[in-house]
Specification:
With 196 residues, this protein is an all-alpha fold. The protein is built from eight helices and no strands. Helices cover 86% and strands 0% of the residues. The longest helix has 36 residues. The relative contact order is 0.14.
């Protein structure tokens, strides 16, 4: 992954904001690119005068939202086929109900806090949510990601790599806590269903 990171960072300085938007687009579709690293580095490069803040934020946001929209549409097209193959077990119905109630939070938080699950959330949202609702929370979450992470890169300037490592570690821990919480919730619901 470091050779991809080095390649992208070197070319980000050369090709600027269009490459930033393209990388966020490709990452949102599902290709494993170090997009959070790029957002933080872009903030640092803005501080150094190598990139412009408003074009970088605008093009980056457009690229990320466009990529998320494509993965949402894949979920929309494939969602009914997947749902037809899965049995209507009480656990699956419970999971669907939980997602339906908190889909806005899943979409919003997976843009910047739980980035590892952004693609599955996009696919599930495509199968379960209206696009207008998805779009609103997607744009809001991506804006928090780009402005927040880019702002940290700008604020810490030459220490942006250290901040990137910290945020990567924090994101992994946050994902672990969420997975544990979901596991406990499913377990308790399964016990409740068995006792009924």
């Amino acid at each position: 992954m470091s050779s991809i990171s080095d390649f992208l960072l070197t070319n980000l300085i050369t090709y600027g904001e269009p490459l930033f938007g393209l990388a966020l687009f490709i990452g949102a579709i599902g290709f494993p690119l170090p997009t959070s690293l790029l957002v933080i580095a872009t903030g640092a490069f803005v501080k150094q005068g190598l990139l412009s803040a408003i074009p970088a934020a605008g093009i980056g946001l457009a690229g990320a939202v466009l990529g998320d929209t494509i993965s949402y549409m894949i979920g929309k097209l494939g969602g009914s086929a997947i749902n037809n193959k899965i049995t209507d077990s009480p656990i699956w119905q419970s999971a669907q109900t939980t997602f339906d109630k908190g889909s806005w939070l899943a979409v919003f938080s997976s843009r910047f806090l739980l980035t590892a699950i952004a693609l599955p959330v996009n696919l599930l949202a495509g199968a379960r949510c209206k696009y207008r609702k998805f779009f609103v929370f997607d744009v809001a979450g991506e804006a928090v990601w780009i402005l927040g992470y880019g702002g940290l890169g700008y604020l810490f300037g030459s220490q942006w790599e250290l901040i990137s490592t910290f945020l990567s570690d924090f994101g992994g821990m946050a994902l672990g806590i969420v997975v544990l919480g979901i596991g406990i919730y499913i377990y308790l619901n399964q016990r409740k269903i068995k006792t009924i």
